[in-house]
Design brief:
Layout lengths: L5 E3 L14 E3 L1 H13 L25 H18 L3 E11 L4 E10 L6 E8 L3
Antiparallel strand pairs: 1-2, 3-4, 4-5
C-alpha cells in the first residue's frame, strides 16, 4: 500500500469556499519540502534554527566545479537529514557563469514507488 504525503502550500493560502488551507500531495509535497529546505538558511526559523541548507553562503564564491561540488555535498547532507520521505538521492549541480547561478537537479525515489522523482531548481544571486 503506497503512502501519500500531504503538506500545506508554501504561501499558506486557503480555499475561499471551504476555508480549508491549500495542500500539496504525494511527490509534489516532497518536492515542495526540498525546495523550502534549499531556500532556507540556518537560523532563519526561530524555533527550528538547524533547518536549512545554508546555500546562500556559496552564492558569492567563484562559479567553479569546486564550489558546485561543495554545494552538492551540502545539499546531500541536508536533505538526507531533513527529508526522510525520499531516498537514494542523486544530486547534480552545474554552474552557469553567464547567469551567475547554479542549476540544481535532484533525482530521488519514494518508498513504494518504482519510478524516480525529478526535481530541478536554480540558485542565483540577486541582481
Amino acid at each position: 500500500m503506497a503512502t501519500t504525503s500531504t503538506d500545506f502550500t508554501a504561501d499558506f493560502g486557503f480555499n475561499p469556499v471551504t476555508k480549508d488551507m491549500n495542500t500539496v500531495k504525494g511527490n509534489e509535497a516532497i518536492k515542495s519540502s526540498i525546495n523550502n529546505i534549499l531556500r532556507t538558511n540556518t537560523y532563519d526559523r526561530l524555533f527550528a534554527p538547524e533547518l536549512g541548507a545554508n546555500l546562500g553562503a556559496f552564492l558569492f564564491e567563484p562559479i567553479t566545479d569546486i564550489t558546485a561540488n561543495r554545494i552538492r555535498e551540502q545539499i546531500e547532507t541536508t536533505i538526507v537529514e531533513l527529508e526522510p520521505r525520499g531516498e537514494s538521492y542523486e544530486i547534480n549541480v552545474v554552474g552557469n557563469e553567464e547567469e551567475n547561478s547554479y542549476i540544481i537537479q535532484i533525482k530521488f525515489y519514494v518508498r513504494d514507488q518504482i519510478e524516480p522523482v525529478n526535481f530541478e531548481t536554480t540558485l542565483s544571486r540577486v541582481r
